[in-house]
Amino acid sequence: MRTPNGSDTVEILAFGVQADERPLIERAFAPHHDIRCVDVFLTEDTAPIAAGHEAISTSVNASLDAGVLRILAAGGTRMIAQRSTGFNNIDLEVAERLGLTVARVSSYSPYSVAEFAWTLAMAVNRRIVRAGNRTRDFDFRLDGLMGRDLRGRTVGVLGTGKIGEAFTRIGHGFGMRLLGWDVAENPACVELGMEYVDKERLLAESDLVSLHVPLLPATRHLIDAAALRAMKDDAILVNSSRGGLVDTEALVAELRKGRFTGVGLDVYEAEAGLFFLDKSLHAVEDDTLARLVTFPNVVVTSHQAYYTEDAVTQIVDTTLHNVLDYLAGRRSENVLVPAAPVS
């Protein structure tokens, strides 16, 4: 294979590789190109590691701002393959000016995230974490562990794309009333009985609210103080999409008032530099997160909703094909910034 720079092969550098991911990545790339996996995340401090690598792969928590992109470009990087659907961490305008090709994973198993969102909902509804902690101490009381049946209650789904649809199908299986909010109706959700309403009505009537919209300037803090006040006092809120969708400080303020049956968060708006890392031996510097995890009705997980063997395999395979497409001069729907013309 001849690459755009005239070479026959390249070594791809993959940043932020988890231990479970490494064998999947190495096995996928082995027949095609060398792959070097490192567990450090891409930041301005670690970007120089990429020097000499024409193509790199990054994780969702990588920092790809203007400063990092300039370091990558100066070191010879020409292609960035992000192993995620979201790309709000990448300055695409700067990447284009620097002549960098940027690609993402347009889609992967929607069931991984949808099923995990329901896992969070059920965990806070049935007090699973508290119950598990008690039984480890041989405390088998049921005090404080009472949950609610979901059948017949109302679930509000903000964002009804592929993941939102998969989430809705599970809610339909529970026998719940379905409310939806999106820029366009999903016919599959309508067929399941979903009623599309405005956001205010959805928040006011839902017993469970789950977020499945992308993080864009228009959706940042979609769940702000006003939205939280509009929700039922005994509602459940689940966010398995992007942390920036929720105003965390406003959420903490409402939780301090004793509101909400439960909150399940797989994402956090200031998760970069925290999630995917072991911080157990360090002082907690994020006061908001420190306060959030103290509430007994809150479960916070470390951006793991996508983390199934099925989904990660699809992500890795798509990432491989994004790199191969770049090296062959092809362009797919996954490309966010196209390759600069080869002189």
Automatic annotation (TrEMBL):
Residues 119-305 form the D-isomer specific 2-hydroxyacid dehydrogenase NAD-binding domain. PROSITE patterns: D_2_HYDROXYACID_DH_1 (PS00065), D_2_HYDROXYACID_DH_3 (PS00671). Pfam families: 2-Hacid_dh, 2-Hacid_dh_C. Residues 17-336 form the D-isomer specific 2-hydroxyacid dehydrogenase catalytic domain. Keywords: NAD, Oxidoreductase. Coiled coil: none annotated. GO terms for molecular function: D-lactate dehydrogenase (NAD+) activity; NAD binding. It comes from the Bacteria. The keyword NAD applies. Signal peptide: none annotated. Belongs to the D-isomer specific 2-hydroxyacid dehydrogenase family. This is Lactate dehydrogenase.
